[in-house]
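_Backbone structure tokens_
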Amino acid sequence: MSSHKLRLTLDAQPPKADGRNEVYIRYTYKRKSKRKGTQIMVFANHWDNKLQIIKTDFESKYDKKVISEIYEIKKKFGSAQVLLREKKVSLTGAFEILIPTISIDGLLDDFIENNSKLTSGQKRKYKQYLSAIENKHLTGAKFLVKGKLKIDSIGDVSVCNEIATILKQSSLSNNTVRDYLEMLDDLSRLAGCPVNSILLVRNCCQRKQILCRD
């Protein structure tokens, strides 16, 4: 059975004028491959192709941010491969997870307030829903930042699972839980989260598992 594979490779083309090559993310599935540049430039003799990192002896020659970026990309490979296998994200979406091109690091309530695509009525309703979720049900949750949800949280599968579980186990009615989850899914799409619409899955059976109390 073919599997979705991701790895970091050094561009095989002749090096740039400064002697360095770009590091690429290479995706392989069913003998077909595609790649995406990382804009990380490395000298060929400094690159460990087996470990997919800059060789330890040469790390001091690079900015710490470059080293961190390489490790951060590699750390995301596992979850991206799972999402690809489960068809929850496209290859473009997987690349976006590995190397984000949009900023989803802000707070969700600021995003609602400043978004021009939402009407004043939608903003008011969404902010009321969000305030209720943050202040009544998610109090003390580790993924909150000073008691607030970040935009990237609603594009994170593990965080969304935790939110759904907390709301499901609360005293809220099933309809209210559904409204809250639908709002968060709507915002994940509007914000352009690479992985979105996580909370209320399209499959009816899965939806019932999330919403119905045991």
Summary: The CA atoms of residues 39 and 148 lie 33 Å apart. Confidence is low (pLDDT under 50) at residues 202-214. The longest strand covers residues 32-43. The chain has two domains: 5-98, 108-211.
